[in-house]
Amino acid sequence: MSRTQTQPASGEAHLGHVVFISAAAAMGGFLFGYDSAVINGAVTGIQKHFGVGNGTTAFVVAIALLGSAAGAVVAGRLADHLGRVRTMLLAAALFAISGIGSMFPPNLELLATWRVVGGVAIGIASVIAPTYIAEVAPTAYRGRLASFQQMAIVLGITVSQLANWALNQAAGGESTGHLGGIQAWQWMLGVETIPALVYGLMAMSIPESPRYLIADNREEQARKVLLEVEGEGVDLDARVAEIHAVLTSTHKPRLKDLLGGRFGLLPIVWVGIGASVFQQFVGINVIFYYSSFLWQSVGINESNSLLISLSTSIVNVIGTVIAMALVDRIGRKPLALAGSVGMAAALGTAAWAFSFRQGTGDSATLDDTYATVALVAAHVFVFCFAFSWGVVVWVLLGEMFPNRIRALALSVAASAQWIANWAITVSFPDLADWNLSATYVIYAVFALLSIPFVAFCIKETKGRALEEMG
Where are the transmembrane segments (predicted)? Predict the structure, then answer.
């Protein structure tokens, strides 16, 4: 353990450099958040422009998540074949292409196609950033640096909601209003091309992961990167030998490497899948994908609903900052447990308030008192998610798997997360029409079930070197 104990000092000496490297990798998370949530402001405009109902709209919103699942599946193989950095460049290109295509869709089918392309980029980004950050971060700072991924995601969500609201206001309070010859919702979808280009430029300025370089038989380059990220006090021979000892397989990771145990996959892989599914089944992305639709369904106008979406995004950022400050101090499990309890209470309160909704569709209303309770509960829910599951799951997925299967196992877990996200996203409009209160009861039940899952299935990873995992 003496080797691990010497890392904090050397990590401090080079922390600024590692922070930049981690922030550059996490730029993919920013685009992940932006692309995922920007559709929230465009939903009403898409419905009006193409003349479609809730079911078709849900399909267009959710189909990107199937692309994300596919992207997450291939990301592990891409990362192990192309390297971490070149995989980031591929994701940046796909984000840019998707943004331009979504901005000028001649029909709904092509819009859905470009959404899938963006979804593939999201899936790749969701895997490659935590993998890369975990592999370059000194052990003492790994939790906080891995948290950059979630911070970037929530910043991307917030910027998308700010952009949506500003474009909506500039177009006269209507997402179908015109700006520069095209409608506001088209601008909302197209603006992501700018951060996509920034992501590509930043990815070109960072070094390749030392663990990938060693696996690819480029030991000298790996030594240079280890010196960069861990400082001159690092024993390079010991570090390289340590990584070599873990990467003992003579083949690239394959799906069969994840097999084992009574239920097909290795137990640790099932835990990663479970964490990913619970993160989505509490319904967090209903807030970020459908909040304008949600609040309009209880009588709030489009402009104000977008403003509410912005406020919940700001709360999301605040909660994430708190998580980043605490994740390496008090650990992953305590944060997740506290968040689960808070989310269950907030979702239950929201379900109670929504039970007083009167009417359906565009004529639905909610008494001011209950509307206020629902709004407060939604913000509390987002805050509890942000300081716990939002950060903790991505930190865990980046560090909980053994080195030799990390990228592949993470891609499987992330793929499960996107499939769960798709299930929640595609079902919400119809469930809301059926019974909005009961829908939130379902989310509250999953929040309650996440408590024993964390207590009995999650192992604390705080302070453990990646080479100790498995």
Answer: 12-34, 54-75, 87-106, 112-133, 263-290, 306-327, 334-354, 374-396, 408-428, 440-458
3-state DSSP: the chain helix, strand, coil percent, rounded to 5?
80, 0, 20
Query: Is the separation of the CB atoms in 93 and 200 below 8 Å?
Result: yes
Tell me if 210 sits within 8 A of 229, measured CB to CB.
yes
Is the per-residue pLDDT at 342 higher than 90? Answer: yes
- Residue-wise pLDDT for 197-233, tens only, equals 999 999 999 999 888 888 888 888 888 888 877 767 7
Tokens coding 284:
């967090």
Instruction: Look at 42 and 116; give whichever has higher pLDDT.
Output: 116
Structure tokens at 296: 């309009």
Return the number of other C-beta atoms located less than 10 Å from residue 94's C-beta.
24
Amino acid identity of 77?
R
- 360 is written with which tokens? 């359906």
Q: Is the dihedral of CA 142, 144, 145, 148 positive or negative?
A: positive
For residue 386, give the nearest of 289, 307, 317 by alpha carbon: 317
Residue 208's Cβ-side half-sphere holds a number of Cα atoms within 13 Å equal to 22
**Is residue 440 a contact partner of residue 105, using CB atoms and an 8 Å limit?**
no
Sole residue written with tokens 């992305």: 285
Distance CA 7, CA 230 (A): 7
Tell me the mean pLDDT in the region 224-250. Answer: 74
Structural element, H or E, at residue 176: none
